[in-house]
Specification:
alpha/beta, six-stranded parallel beta sheet, 10 strands
Length: about 290
Amino acid sequence: VHSFVEPYATLFAFISKRPNEKRFMTIHGTYATYPNHASSITKPMLVWLFARAVKNIDAVIAVSNATREAFEHDMRLMNLPLPKMEVIHVGVILGSSQREDVPEVPFTILSVGGVKPRKGILEIIRGLGEFKKKFTDQFEYRIVGAAEGTDSYMQNLKRAIQEEGLTRQVSFLGKIEGDLLQGEYARAHVLALLPRLSGKDREGFGIVYLEANAYDVPTLGALGTVSEEAIVGGKSGLLVDADNPTAVADGFNTIYKKGIPTGGPRAWAEDHAWSRIVSEYERLYLGNLSKES
């Protein structure tokens, strides 16, 4: 039995484990240790249930080493024993992923995901302000994603756009899916996501990096974050200091002027094709089934 949505694993606390049954849980990011997000009133009960559930799990699978480390840290804070851990990255659906003949101008930067602090949108905007001053104003920044209860953050973004003189370059497209989203990937020159901790919120892996790479679109991520697992510097994209607008601008300019070798991003996405990820899960299942309960 495998729970791929963390809170659902609580059910393991109520269901007796049958002979030879194996149980697994995949953890992604923010809700890897969901009791930590509960109120002080409900947290003790949730910690107790979580402990009972995890006790009967044969392995916890983290989608990144960063998620694994954060999970182990939180388990220690809750004074809970660590379960057996594995790391298996997320997979990406490759499909044909055909790119359009993308014109060089305007240079198109894309971000995909909820408009919230941990996505690093503000840092990208500050970096693009420097990019405009130092290199060119012939670019557009297209932001795909809903503002999820982050009105104050949205106001901060709009203020930064005004301050950096980017009102002509920045567009908020809202939440889009399907062919419309695939079209945005296909027309982009770079996908930018600069993850950062925001309270208890954290990025688990960054599937959007791979989704862009599937179109052979390079990516820009943040040093010292989960981006280091999702991006191979110089092959699938670049890593920069997200807190340094000049470094962010230089990263964009490197991709703008030199690019990333054609085929590199696509090859990295192929390394994460679901067929390969499924084989990792099969290895995990078979390895545990061969053991005595």
